[in-house]
Structures are given as C-alpha cells and as structure tokens.
C-alpha cells in the first residue's frame, strides 16, 4: 500500500523543501521505496537541496504532457537506495499542473511499488499548493514558532479539511505538525512561542521539533539532505520524525533550554 | 542570568505569550468568519419558509428570521417567526 504525504505550510521559507528532502531520504534509508516530487512549478528548488540539479533532464510537467516517461524523469539518488526525485518544471505556465495529470503520475508511482510519495508543496494557497495536497493521505504541516507561520498553517489545515480529495470523499487527511527552527533558549526566555503553544493553537498532533541549527544551511549549501548529517541536532531530530511516522515511540530531543556554563564573573556581569 | 539581565528581564519578557494571545484571537476570528459565510442557503431557506407559512397565516417578510449559530460541538439553526396578533 503506497501512501501519499504532502509537506506543506502555507507560508514560504519555513522549511518545506528541507523537510521534504530529509523526510524522504529518511524513509528511503529505512528501506522504503520513496519518491519525492517538487510541486513548485516555476521555482523548483528541491533538486538543489537534494544536490541533483545537474542531473535534471526531464521534469514533472514533461511527464504530465507526455513529453517524457516517468522513468526518464525520475532521478535516482546516489547516496540513499530506494530514493527517487521528480523535479518541478521551470515553466512559467501556471496551469501546467492539473488534477488528471498529477493523479496519473501518482498512480504510476503506486503501480511501480513506491511505498511513499512525498509531495513538496510550494508556498501559498494557489494551484501548485492545492495540487500538492489534493491527493494526500497524510500531511506534514511545517510551522515555525512565529505568528505569521502559525496563522498560515491554520489556513492550510482548513484547505486540507475541506478541499482535499480525502475530504471530498468524506474522509480526512491525517495531519502531523512539524515545528522547525525551534530555539528552546528563546522559548525559555519568553520570546518564542513554545511547542505546546503551537500545538494548542493548531490542535493537531506533533510529529517532531527540529531545532534551529547551522547544519541546515550547511546541508543545503552542499546539496545534502540534512538527515544524512547524523552528527547534527537537526539531522537527528529528522531521524526521530521518520521513526515516529513509521510508528515508533521516540521521545522528543533538543527541546529543552541548554544552560550556558558561565564562570563566576560572567554569571555576575554577563 | 547576570546581574544586569535581572533588571532588564521583566520588561522584555514574554513576547511569546503576546504572540500566542494574538494568534488565538485572530484564528478564532477567522474561523467564525468562515462559519458565518458557510450557509449560503440561508436567504433561500428564509424565502421558502415564508412561502409555506403564508399558506396558513399571513406574515411579512421581516417577521421571519433565520439564523445559524456555531456551538462547540454543534451548530444551531435558529428560526424566529413573529405571528400577527389575533384581531
């Protein structure tokens, strides 16, 4: 049984693509055949984050238009077995994605024994974002501890609950909250929304908290999914997210404030 | 926490709780807006009810009031019909 998972947020820049790349790589590393699809037509970036930008020949829209086969367009990852990337097109045609086309690609992936199909949504609530979430069985809502991000997540949850195919068919999309760029010290200081605050406001179950980490920028700089950086806190937190998604019971990490060790004088004057 | 921070702290504290409050109000508001908008059928419902009632009693359009109120677990369809006084 294949599952379609959308990674979405409403707001831009919160870490959808970083999370999609990490999550898909994590699922594949656990032995599941996984495809990650970039739905951000016109502004593709998943290829860059995954470090396969020089291997893009055909894209998602080419496949939908019958200009290439799915097999030709899928890029097989060289680091992780079972991982395939389907890049978005750089076309400026906003109507390049349509329900029939997206459905046929998803069905072909299902028929090809993919266990997980991860849909990396563009920001906003326009066509691309809608297409990315329409066929989803489950959704990962990426949220920063920041007011505009939380509000936009609420908006996108409303759309998932009313306009997705699952909702139209009388069912529902299973929702997971993923908080990224979390700084426990700032939460402790009272200057950042806590994960409990965000869970309370959005009232969907939490699948993980990714701490703010320099490793994320380093990973995207080098085109490696951050989950492969097993030394980093962010990488480890993503590994936990994947484990929880697969049903393991893993406690949260890196969510407690770290007290800086200071000397006597620093304590007094710091 | 340093000596100087100790004094600075109070004023600066808890922009997070401010953020939370603002979000709760905003999101609650946005959700009510949606529920207010959702029953597009209200005007038509009102007209049809008026028609049925007029078969039996003569009431004016303004005497029929249809309203939807959103509860926690359920919505209430409120129907208010003012009947004309007996002569």
Structural commentary:
With 270 residues, chain A is of the alpha/beta class. In chain A, 41% of the residues lie in helices and 16% in strands. Chain A has an eight-stranded mixed sheet with strand order 3-4-2-5-1-6-7-8, with helices on both faces. Chain A is globular and about 70 Å long. The termini of chain A are far apart. The relative contact order of chain A is 0.17. Chain B is an alpha+beta fold and 87 residues long. Chain B has helices at residues 3-12, 15-37, 42-54; strands at residues 64-70, 75-81. Chain B has a two-stranded antiparallel sheet. In chain B, strand 1 (64-70) and strand 2 form a beta hairpin. Chain A binds chain B through residues 145-147, 150-151, 154-155, 158, 187, 189-194, 197, 200-201, 266-270, and chain B through 2-5, 12-17, 19-20, 22-24, 26-27, 30, 34.
Task: Please tag this protein with its features.
heterodimer, A: 270 residues, alpha/beta, eight-stranded mixed beta sheet, 13 helices, B: 87 residues, alpha+beta, two-stranded antiparallel ribbon, 3 helices, rod-shaped
List the helices and strands and how they pair.
The complex is a heterodimer of chains A (about 270) and B (about 90).
Chain A: E1 3-8, H1 16-29, E2 34-38, H2 46-49, H3 60-64, H4 70-73, E3 75-76, E4 83-86, H5 99-111, E5 116-120, H6 127-134, E6 138-143, H7 147-163, H8 165-168, E7 174-182, H9 184-188, H10 195-202, E8 206-211, H11 214-222, H12 233-245, H13 264-269
Parallel strand pairs in A: 1-5, 1-6, 2-4, 2-5, 6-7, 7-8
Antiparallel strand pairs in A: 3-4
Chain B: H1 3-12, H2 15-37, H3 42-54, E1 64-70, E2 75-81
Antiparallel strand pairs in B: 1-2
């Amino acid at each position: 049984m294949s599952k379609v998972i959308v990674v979405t947020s409403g707001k831009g820049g919160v870490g959808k693509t970083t999370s999609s790349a990490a999550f898909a790589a994590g699922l594949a590393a656990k032995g599941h055949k996984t495809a990650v699809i970039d739905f951000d037509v016109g502004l593709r970036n998943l290829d860059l984050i995954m470090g396969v930008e020089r291997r893009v020949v055909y894209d998602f829209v080419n496949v939908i238009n019958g200009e290439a086969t799915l097999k030709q367009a899928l890029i097989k990852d060289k680091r992780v077995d079972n991982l395939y990337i389907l890049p978005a097109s750089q076309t400026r045609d906003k109507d390049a994605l349509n329900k029939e086309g997206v459905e046929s690609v998803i069905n072909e992936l299902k028929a090809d024994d993919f266990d997980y199909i991860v849909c990396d949504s563009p920001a906003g609530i326009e066509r691309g974002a809608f297409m990315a979430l329409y066929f989803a069985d489950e959704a990962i809502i990426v949220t920063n501890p920041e007011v505009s991000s939380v509000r936009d997540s609420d908006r996108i949850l409303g759309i998932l609950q009313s306009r997705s195919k699952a909702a139209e068919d009388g069912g529902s999309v299973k929702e997971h909250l993923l908080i990224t760029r979390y700084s426990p010290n700032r939460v402790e200081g009272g200057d950042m929304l806590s994960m409990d605050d965000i869970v309370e406001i959005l009232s969907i179950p939490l699948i993980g908290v990714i701490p703010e980490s320099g490793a994320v920028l380093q990973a995207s700089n080098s085109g490696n999914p951050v989950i492969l950086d097993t030394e980093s806190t962010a990488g480890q937190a993503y590994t936990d997210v994947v484990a929880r998604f697969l049903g393991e019971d893993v406690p949260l990490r890196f969510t407690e404030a770290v007290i800086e060790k200071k000397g006597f004088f620093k304590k007094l004057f710091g | 926490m340093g000596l100087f921070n100790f004094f600075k702290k109070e004023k600066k504290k808890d922009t997070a709780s401010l953020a939370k409050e603002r979000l709760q109000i905003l999101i609650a508001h946005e959700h009510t807006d949606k529920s207010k908008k959702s029953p597009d059928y209200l005007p038509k419902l009102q007209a049809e009810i008026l028609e049925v009632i007029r078969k039996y009693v003569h009431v004016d359009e303004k005497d029929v009031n249809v309203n939807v109120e959103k509860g926690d677990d359920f919505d209430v369809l409120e129907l208010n019909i003012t009947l004309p006084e007996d002569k």
